[in-house]
Write a structure and sequence with these properties.
Layout lengths: L1 H28 L5 H17 L23 H4 L18 E6 L7 E6 H17 L4 E6 L2 E4 L12 E2 L6 E2 L1 E4 L4 E3 L2 H9 L13 H6 L10 E3 L5 E3 L7
Amino acid sequence: MKKINLLLFISLIAILLSGCMYPDKEKVENQVPDEAQLLTVQKAVDQFRKDTNGLLPIQNRDQDVDQYIKYPINFEKLTQGYITKAPGNSFEKGGIYQYVIWKAESKNPEVKLVDLRGAEMIRELNIKKGVNGFVPISKQIKDDVYQIDYKKMGYKQAPTVPSPYSNTQLPLVVKGTGEICIDYSIELQRILDEGKVKVKQGEDIRYLLSDKYPILPAYSLPYTVNDKNEVEFLSKSDKK
Protein backbone atom coordinates (compact mmCIF):
# COMPACT_ATOMS: atom_id res chain seq x y z
CA MET A 1 0.00 0.00 0.00
CA LYS A 2 2.83 2.37 0.92
CA LYS A 3 4.56 1.58 -2.40
CA ILE A 4 1.35 2.39 -4.33
CA ASN A 5 0.94 5.69 -2.49
CA LEU A 6 4.58 6.54 -3.17
CA LEU A 7 4.16 5.82 -6.88
CA LEU A 8 1.01 7.96 -7.00
CA PHE A 9 2.85 10.79 -5.25
CA ILE A 10 5.79 10.60 -7.68
CA SER A 11 3.40 10.56 -10.63
CA LEU A 12 1.58 13.60 -9.30
CA ILE A 13 4.83 15.52 -8.84
CA ALA A 14 5.91 14.63 -12.39
CA ILE A 15 2.60 15.90 -13.79
CA LEU A 16 2.85 19.14 -11.86
CA LEU A 17 6.45 19.72 -12.96
CA SER A 18 5.64 19.05 -16.60
CA GLY A 19 2.73 21.44 -16.35
CA CYS A 20 5.01 24.16 -14.98
CA MET A 21 7.71 23.60 -17.54
CA TYR A 22 5.49 23.51 -20.62
CA PRO A 23 4.29 27.12 -20.43
CA ASP A 24 7.89 28.30 -20.03
CA LYS A 25 8.93 26.30 -23.06
CA GLU A 26 5.98 27.63 -24.99
CA LYS A 27 6.81 31.16 -23.84
CA VAL A 28 10.39 30.89 -25.11
CA GLU A 29 9.19 29.64 -28.46
CA ASN A 30 6.83 32.59 -28.70
CA GLN A 31 9.58 35.17 -28.23
CA VAL A 32 11.30 34.68 -31.58
CA PRO A 33 10.32 35.68 -35.14
CA ASP A 34 8.72 32.82 -36.99
CA GLU A 35 8.69 32.79 -40.81
CA ALA A 36 5.71 30.43 -40.94
CA GLN A 37 3.62 32.71 -38.71
CA LEU A 38 4.63 35.77 -40.73
CA LEU A 39 3.68 34.02 -43.97
CA THR A 40 0.33 32.94 -42.53
CA VAL A 41 -0.51 36.47 -41.46
CA GLN A 42 0.72 37.89 -44.79
CA LYS A 43 -1.59 35.55 -46.72
CA ALA A 44 -4.48 36.48 -44.45
CA VAL A 45 -3.85 40.20 -44.98
CA ASP A 46 -3.58 39.75 -48.76
CA GLN A 47 -6.88 37.86 -48.87
CA PHE A 48 -8.55 40.45 -46.63
CA ARG A 49 -7.43 43.21 -49.01
CA LYS A 50 -8.74 41.27 -51.98
CA ASP A 51 -12.15 40.76 -50.36
CA THR A 52 -12.50 44.37 -49.17
CA ASN A 53 -11.34 46.23 -52.27
CA GLY A 54 -7.95 47.16 -50.87
CA LEU A 55 -8.75 47.86 -47.22
CA LEU A 56 -6.22 46.82 -44.58
CA PRO A 57 -7.03 45.04 -41.29
CA ILE A 58 -5.40 47.70 -39.12
CA GLN A 59 -6.04 49.57 -35.90
CA ASN A 60 -6.56 53.32 -35.99
CA ARG A 61 -3.55 55.42 -35.00
CA ASP A 62 -2.71 59.12 -35.09
CA GLN A 63 -1.10 60.20 -38.34
CA ASP A 64 1.96 61.68 -36.62
CA VAL A 65 2.92 58.44 -34.86
CA ASP A 66 6.24 56.67 -35.53
CA GLN A 67 6.12 55.36 -39.11
CA TYR A 68 7.18 51.88 -37.98
CA ILE A 69 4.25 51.42 -35.60
CA LYS A 70 1.69 53.43 -37.56
CA TYR A 71 -0.32 50.47 -38.84
CA PRO A 72 -0.71 47.71 -36.23
CA ILE A 73 -2.70 44.71 -37.43
CA ASN A 74 -6.17 44.25 -35.98
CA PHE A 75 -6.38 40.49 -35.48
CA GLU A 76 -10.07 40.72 -34.57
CA LYS A 77 -10.72 41.46 -38.23
CA LEU A 78 -8.48 38.66 -39.47
CA THR A 79 -9.92 36.00 -37.15
CA GLN A 80 -13.27 36.46 -38.87
CA GLY A 81 -12.55 33.90 -41.55
CA TYR A 82 -8.94 34.64 -42.52
CA ILE A 83 -6.87 33.22 -39.67
CA THR A 84 -7.80 30.96 -36.76
CA LYS A 85 -6.03 33.02 -34.08
CA ALA A 86 -3.31 35.59 -33.54
CA PRO A 87 0.25 34.17 -33.68
CA GLY A 88 1.70 32.90 -30.41
CA ASN A 89 4.54 35.43 -30.47
CA SER A 90 2.19 38.38 -30.96
CA PHE A 91 1.41 40.98 -28.30
CA GLU A 92 -2.20 39.80 -28.34
CA LYS A 93 -1.08 36.34 -27.19
CA GLY A 94 1.50 37.48 -24.65
CA GLY A 95 4.45 37.56 -27.06
CA ILE A 96 6.96 40.37 -27.51
CA TYR A 97 6.02 41.32 -31.07
CA GLN A 98 3.48 43.72 -32.48
CA TYR A 99 2.47 42.67 -35.98
CA VAL A 100 2.26 45.72 -38.24
CA ILE A 101 1.74 46.64 -41.87
CA TRP A 102 4.79 48.15 -43.54
CA LYS A 103 4.51 50.18 -46.76
CA ALA A 104 0.75 50.37 -46.27
CA GLU A 105 0.30 52.86 -49.10
CA SER A 106 2.15 50.69 -51.63
CA LYS A 107 0.72 48.08 -53.99
CA ASN A 108 2.25 45.31 -51.87
CA PRO A 109 1.96 46.05 -48.13
CA GLU A 110 4.20 43.83 -46.03
CA VAL A 111 3.60 42.19 -42.67
CA LYS A 112 6.46 43.09 -40.34
CA LEU A 113 7.21 42.96 -36.62
CA VAL A 114 8.00 45.49 -33.91
CA ASP A 115 9.97 44.29 -30.88
CA LEU A 116 8.07 45.65 -27.87
CA ARG A 117 10.91 45.17 -25.39
CA GLY A 118 12.27 48.53 -26.47
CA ALA A 119 8.87 50.14 -25.97
CA GLU A 120 8.75 48.77 -22.43
CA MET A 121 12.09 50.35 -21.50
CA ILE A 122 11.03 53.66 -23.03
CA ARG A 123 7.83 53.50 -21.00
CA GLU A 124 9.87 52.94 -17.83
CA LEU A 125 12.09 55.91 -18.62
CA ASN A 126 9.07 58.07 -19.38
CA ILE A 127 7.69 57.26 -15.94
CA LYS A 128 10.99 58.44 -14.46
CA LYS A 129 10.76 61.52 -16.64
CA GLY A 130 7.27 62.13 -15.32
CA VAL A 131 8.55 62.07 -11.74
CA ASN A 132 11.41 64.47 -12.46
CA GLY A 133 9.53 66.55 -14.98
CA PHE A 134 12.38 66.35 -17.50
CA VAL A 135 15.09 64.07 -18.92
CA PRO A 136 18.54 65.03 -17.57
CA ILE A 137 21.23 64.98 -20.26
CA SER A 138 24.97 64.40 -19.96
CA LYS A 139 26.13 65.64 -23.36
CA GLN A 140 25.05 66.54 -26.87
CA ILE A 141 25.56 63.83 -29.49
CA LYS A 142 24.49 65.79 -32.56
CA ASP A 143 22.20 68.77 -33.05
CA ASP A 144 18.98 67.93 -31.21
CA VAL A 145 20.07 64.46 -30.01
CA TYR A 146 21.46 64.01 -26.51
CA GLN A 147 22.92 61.35 -24.24
CA ILE A 148 20.79 60.72 -21.15
CA ASP A 149 22.27 61.23 -17.68
CA TYR A 150 21.03 57.97 -16.19
CA LYS A 151 22.66 58.55 -12.80
CA LYS A 152 20.46 61.59 -12.28
CA MET A 153 17.48 59.41 -13.19
CA GLY A 154 18.36 56.97 -10.43
CA TYR A 155 20.15 54.26 -12.44
CA LYS A 156 23.54 52.81 -11.52
CA GLN A 157 24.32 52.14 -15.17
CA ALA A 158 22.82 53.17 -18.47
CA PRO A 159 19.76 51.04 -19.33
CA THR A 160 19.84 49.32 -22.68
CA VAL A 161 17.42 47.30 -24.77
CA PRO A 162 18.18 43.96 -26.45
CA SER A 163 18.69 44.36 -30.16
CA PRO A 164 16.11 42.51 -32.29
CA TYR A 165 18.85 41.85 -34.85
CA SER A 166 21.71 40.38 -32.82
CA ASN A 167 22.92 39.70 -29.29
CA THR A 168 23.93 43.35 -28.93
CA GLN A 169 22.48 45.67 -26.31
CA LEU A 170 21.34 49.00 -27.75
CA PRO A 171 21.60 52.34 -25.94
CA LEU A 172 18.90 55.01 -25.78
CA VAL A 173 19.03 58.71 -26.58
CA VAL A 174 16.71 61.67 -26.07
CA LYS A 175 15.66 64.55 -28.31
CA GLY A 176 15.38 68.11 -27.14
CA THR A 177 11.62 67.64 -27.00
CA GLY A 178 12.06 64.91 -24.37
CA GLU A 179 11.25 62.04 -26.76
CA ILE A 180 13.29 58.95 -25.86
CA CYS A 181 14.50 56.79 -28.75
CA ILE A 182 16.46 53.59 -29.34
CA ASP A 183 19.89 54.02 -30.94
CA TYR A 184 20.34 51.50 -33.78
CA SER A 185 23.65 52.91 -35.05
CA ILE A 186 25.56 49.81 -33.88
CA GLU A 187 23.48 47.56 -36.10
CA LEU A 188 23.59 49.92 -39.07
CA GLN A 189 27.37 50.22 -38.81
CA ARG A 190 27.66 46.44 -38.69
CA ILE A 191 25.79 46.15 -41.99
CA LEU A 192 27.96 48.83 -43.59
CA ASP A 193 31.15 47.22 -42.32
CA GLU A 194 30.17 43.98 -44.03
CA GLY A 195 30.77 45.91 -47.24
CA LYS A 196 27.81 44.55 -49.17
CA VAL A 197 25.83 47.78 -49.52
CA LYS A 198 26.50 51.36 -50.58
CA VAL A 199 24.62 54.33 -49.21
CA LYS A 200 24.59 58.05 -49.90
CA GLN A 201 25.32 60.84 -47.49
CA GLY A 202 22.17 62.69 -46.55
CA GLU A 203 19.76 59.77 -47.02
CA ASP A 204 18.00 58.00 -44.19
CA ILE A 205 19.65 54.57 -44.09
CA ARG A 206 17.25 52.81 -41.74
CA TYR A 207 16.00 50.89 -44.78
CA LEU A 208 19.12 48.73 -44.35
CA LEU A 209 17.35 47.19 -41.35
CA SER A 210 13.75 47.25 -42.57
CA ASP A 211 14.69 45.64 -45.90
CA LYS A 212 17.01 43.02 -44.43
CA TYR A 213 14.98 41.84 -41.43
CA PRO A 214 11.33 41.04 -40.61
CA ILE A 215 11.63 43.38 -37.60
CA LEU A 216 11.41 47.15 -38.05
CA PRO A 217 13.72 49.67 -36.31
CA ALA A 218 10.88 51.23 -34.32
CA TYR A 219 11.22 54.10 -31.84
CA SER A 220 14.27 55.37 -33.69
CA LEU A 221 15.64 58.52 -35.30
CA PRO A 222 16.88 58.90 -38.89
CA TYR A 223 20.51 58.00 -39.63
CA THR A 224 22.93 58.74 -42.42
CA VAL A 225 26.71 58.41 -42.96
CA ASN A 226 29.54 60.91 -42.93
CA ASP A 227 32.39 61.12 -45.44
CA LYS A 228 34.13 58.24 -43.64
CA ASN A 229 31.08 55.99 -44.07
CA GLU A 230 30.41 56.15 -40.34
CA VAL A 231 26.84 56.08 -39.11
CA GLU A 232 25.54 59.22 -37.46
CA PHE A 233 22.20 60.83 -36.75
CA LEU A 234 20.65 62.56 -39.75
CA SER A 235 20.02 66.27 -39.28
CA LYS A 236 18.24 68.74 -41.55
CA SER A 237 21.57 70.12 -42.72
CA ASP A 238 22.67 66.61 -43.83
CA LYS A 239 19.80 66.13 -46.26
CA LYS A 240 20.83 66.47 -49.88
